[in-house]
């Protein structure tokens, strides 16, 4: 196979290196007859990868990155019953067994068996079970019958691949955030963060029927892109009075639903990091009994945090405000399997042009280091790696 992959080599650095060819074996060396090997068709760079590459997690050098994977099956284990060589599939970023209590209840983001350290597994991610990442030419996927979503038609899938590649994470993640925040017909919605997850949340709010979808950020290029694809930008660099800015747009200083697509590396108005600022702002602007969806990532260890408490994930949240307003909060890894089929149909039937909304930008696998650097600089793009040159053509 002659595999190569994107390897984290230390804070601020990734390299494309030779890596082992995948085998039907788990991180603990066990043979996995329920697994398949994929030839990777597309694999995206994510804001979640950036937390590791910026040195803001306990990820160790040598980690092969990549949890957003779409591919073609090239080998199947003997226990795989519903998939065959040649199938084109989307891989949920969650590794899930399909057998434990959480998986059986649809909470595949916190599978109980695939990670000895804690609930929840993922490919190419720190503390997520040691499953090898898929920013590579080839990758192994366990519990394949349970995890994989097969595209109904190969040619149609390749036509729509820039959109379908977003099913492995950010589109279901944005959709989950919107649903958990209670977005429905006529909702007034604020999305914090105009990165790819924020744009996917905004697109989800729109397809769920929201009346107004505002997207807040400091990044002017991203705000301009958000406006271009039909959302209402909120330029946080102009004022630190978010309720007032919302009132200027909608006539009232509050929203029905708020979605945090920023996470723990949130910036405050003064420019420095303020890990709880988005959470506090959302409690402030969300109406009484409104909903707050939190796909943005929060960590239990942040060795790079500016203040001491935040280094162990302790944030200064004004939780009493949320309590007093009887708001609902929903956090955690997205259970991608719950949504990817319906979102695939929305894409295949031209209802959800997610690639344009996130400005999907295809680059060769070899250019991953430049892609990481460019994404980190805050361009309004979602980078899609093309390991075999199948998308370029
Ligand atoms: N829950 C999940 O399963 C899941 C899945 C995918 C990604 N994520 C997380 O979602 C978050 C967003 O991902 P992304 O790829 O869009 O990342 P990104 O880093 O590209 O985007 C984050 C954006 O937030 C902006 N921002 C910073 N402070 C802000 C503030 N106070 N208010 C508003 N905007 C602010 C930044 O300028 C940036 O544009 C990350 O934390 C990522 O780890 C979670
Ligand atoms: Zn991701
Ligand atoms: Zn499980």
UniProtKB/TrEMBL annotation:
Entry keyword set: Metal-binding, NAD, Oxidoreductase, Zinc
GO MF assignments: oxidoreductase activity; zinc ion binding
Residue ranges of every copy of the Alcohol dehydrogenase-like C-terminal domain listed in the record: 196-263
The protein's name: Glutathione-independent formaldehyde dehydrogenase
Source superkingdom: Bacteria
Pfam families linked: ADH_N, ADH_zinc_N
CDD domains, sorted: PFDH_like
Cofactor(s) needed for function: Zn(2+)
Family: Belongs to the zinc-containing alcohol dehydrogenase family.
Domain Alcohol dehydrogenase-like N-terminal span(s) in chain numbering: 34-152
PANTHER family: GLUTATHIONE-INDEPENDENT FORMALDEHYDE DEHYDROGENASE (PTHR42813:SF3), ZINC-TYPE ALCOHOL DEHYDROGENASE-LIKE (PTHR42813)
